[in-house]
Design brief:
- There is one protein chain.
- The protein is of the alpha+beta class.
- It has helices at residues 10-14, 16-26, 43-51, 82-90, 96-101, 103-118, 125-130, 132-142, 146-162, 173-198, 207-213, 223-236, 239-254, 256-264, 269-279, 311-314, 333-336, 352-369, and strands at 29-31, 38-40, 56-57, 122-124, 215-216, 219-220, 286-290, 294-296, 299-301, 306-309, 374-375, 380-381, 390-392, 394-396.
- The structure holds protoporphyrin IX containing FE.
Length: 404
């Protein structure tokens, strides 16, 4: 093995793109001596793996740690045919019209967030807007009251997102207790929806309601599965979109000439968002587990090995994207859409249109109401995780007036 990398290193965390390029050239299939898992860096190799669901299973979950084999698999950790049946139960909630109907409420919410900071002339874009917006959207999807629960939910998301990547430290008792509290939080909510369905009433069009009334081969979806799904969605739909919005502002700050192009030509918005998704994927990579021995490059990989598909690296593959390490919002949209930020194949992200919409509405309102902005301190990155984003992004701008 020639090349090496460490997910946890400052080198990787501060410049993942440079590491991806190096690994594609030196070591496109990598085995971590420290953690034992494999990583795949080239676009076509990743595409081959996601096509072969018989060999590369999702059943041990998308993270580096092996999911509990006794826990019922839910969607992202389910293989065919169960995956398809579960997907059929929730797909109505991701209907294109329903997503479009969220645009105006999202716009109102974004403007409320901007109103709360506009007079002061400074804010932390991540904590003041990029965190609350996707959390509010998830609360709407799960039919949970945002105002009452936002502080608690955010704390849980941070704990879950932090535990996605094992750092070698055991999770301390306090954190374990908090994860258990989160699981208990969903119990009464799910029980109420299931009770409605059992009483012949409509359990609702929100995701928990749809799962409560959903059937897989005539059987109800168990409360434990519904709970796992709600918990998954809390991180999968919220921390990821927070990263997208934070990365958008970070890249606009770092590339003023691209920001100027977008401001003078707003029809570039879809390309700009897709380029942010490509250039700075909010999730570096996620895992599969092989059912049988396979060859990956020079490695003979024993069954049940964890294999990380590096979406962020696929996005920097010169075989697909010209000059991949340049941030350029004028790339061809069709080519840009080949990015693997939302995964590919069977498990491709169901929330992609919603995440794009949230970022687009945010970007339109932010650029409209904040005509210029600059850094107001150092950004703070997410601490070592498969997630790629910022915890803090302080900016300053000319003070304005609330609109609502
Ligand atoms: C920028 C934001 C987002 C990113 C980067 C992202 C990324 C991903 C990726 C890479 C996968 C594939 C997992 C795999 O192959 O193992 C995935 C799956 C999924 N995502 Fe997202 N996601 C985002 C936002 C959302 C949102 C907003 C929702 C819902 C509200 C959502 C719901 C899901 C679901 C349900 C799956 C599982 C699909 C399946 O297994 O069939 N995601 N996401």
């Amino acid at each position: 093995m020639s090349g090496d990398y460490d997910f946890h290193s400052d080198e990787f965390q501060s410049a993942p793109g440079a590491t991806f390029t190096r690994m594609q050239q030196e070591c496109p299939f990598h085995k971590s001596q420290q953690y034992g898992w494999y990583s795949v860096f080239r676009f076509d190799d990743i595409a081959d793996i996601v096509r072969d669901n018989d060999t590369f299973s999702a059943r041990f979950g998308p993270g580096p740690a092996y999911a509990d084999p006794d826990a019922a698999p839910v969607l992202v950790s389910a293989d065919p045919p169960l995956h398809g049946k579960q997907k059929a139960a929730i797909i109505p909630a991701f209907n294109a019209q329903l997503i479009r109907d969220m645009e105006e409420p999202i716009r109102r919410f974004v403007n409320q967030c901007i109103d709360s900071v506009i007079e002061s002339g400074e804010c932390d874009v991540v904590q003041d807007i990029a965190v609350p917006l996707p959390l509010w959207v998830i609360c709407e999807l799960l039919d949970i009251d945002f105002e009452t629960n936002k502080v608690q939910l955010r704390e849980w998301i941070e704990i879950l997102a932090g535990s996605v990547f094992p750092t070698g430290e055991a999770m301390e008792a306090e954190r374990i207790q908090k994860v258990m509290d989160l699981q208990a939080f969903f119990d009464p909510h799910i029980a109420a929806k299931v009770a409605k369905d059992e009483a012949g009433e409509d359990a609702g069009a929100d995701l928990i309601g749809l799962l409560a009334k959903g059937r897989v081969e005539g059987e109800r979806i168990g409360n434990a599965e519904i709970k796992s799904f709600a918990q998954f969605l809390l991180v999968a739909g919220s921390a990821t979109t927070t990263n997208l919005i934070g990365n958008f502002v970070k890249l606009m700050l770092a590339h003023p000439e691209q920001q100027a192009k977008l401001r003078s030509n707003p029809s570039l918005m879809d390309q700009a968002i897709e380029e942010v998704l490509r250039f700075d994927a909010p999730v570096h990579g996620l895992f599969r587990t092989n059912n049988e021995e396979v060859r990956l490059g020079e490695h003979t990989v024993p069954p049940d090995s964890k294999i990380c598909l590096m979406w962020g690296s696929a996005n920097r593959d010169p075989a697909v994207f010209d000059d991949p390490n340049t941030f350029n919002i004028e790339r061809d949209l069709q080519t840009l859409r080949k990015n693997m930020t939302f995964g590919q194949g069977l498990h491709k992200c169901l929330g992609a249109p919603l995440a794009r919409l949230e970022c687009k509405v945010f970007a339109e309102e932010f650029l409209r109401r904040i005509p210029t902005f600059e850094a107001n301190g150092e950004p703070v990155s997410y601490p070592y995780s498969t997630l790629n984003g910022l915890d803090n992004l302080p900016i300053r701008f000319p003070p304005g007036s609330p609109e609502q």
